[in-house]
């Protein structure tokens, strides 16, 4: 079976419906924790048009660079001149159920569902806690992903590992 190319950086797209919180957070986290091995992007099937203010705040307080972020459509990544994608991860259940465009590069896909912090009702503390929880869960999954020996895993084993990460297995290990 074929293994992932040794080309770096590998392009990763994180998808969510609104592209305002979870997928944005994942993009920023992988771009830093991937240490140049990955180039992360994010998009949504129905983008909100703006990044959620609490997503920006939680990233900044965790010392991530949150500059230049924007909410964008997944259609930007389905054009012939779009980056060739190696991986596409859905981080919300709605996006995982939608019919996705055909991605250039035939990327490997997985679902990494994270509860939507933007949907949390309640106090400011409840909302803040939800955004911090989403950041922690994504950091854990991205650490596991970025530490996989991508060039030595065959496609079937890699897919199994991506699915395992998406189920939250091993999140306490990193």
Topology readout:
Layout: E1 10-16, H1 22-33, E2 38-44, H2 53-61, E3 87-90, H3 93-97, E4 108-111, H4 124-146, H5 155-166
Parallel strand pairs: 1-2, 1-3, 3-4
Brief summary:
This protein is an alpha/beta fold and 174 residues long. The protein has helices spanning 22-33, 53-61, 93-97, 124-146, 155-166, and strands at residues 10-16, 38-44, 87-90, 108-111.
Describe the structure.
The protein has 174 residues and is α/β, with parallel strands linked by helices. It has one domain (10-173): Response regulator (Rossmann fold, 3-Layer(aba) Sandwich). The protein has 5 helices and 4 strands. The chain has helices at 22-33, 53-61, 93-97, 124-146, 155-166, and strands at residues 10-16, 38-44, 87-90, 108-111. Strands 2-1-3-4 form a 4-stranded parallel beta sheet. The radius of gyration is 15 Å and the shape is globular. The two termini are 28 Å apart. The mean pLDDT is 89.
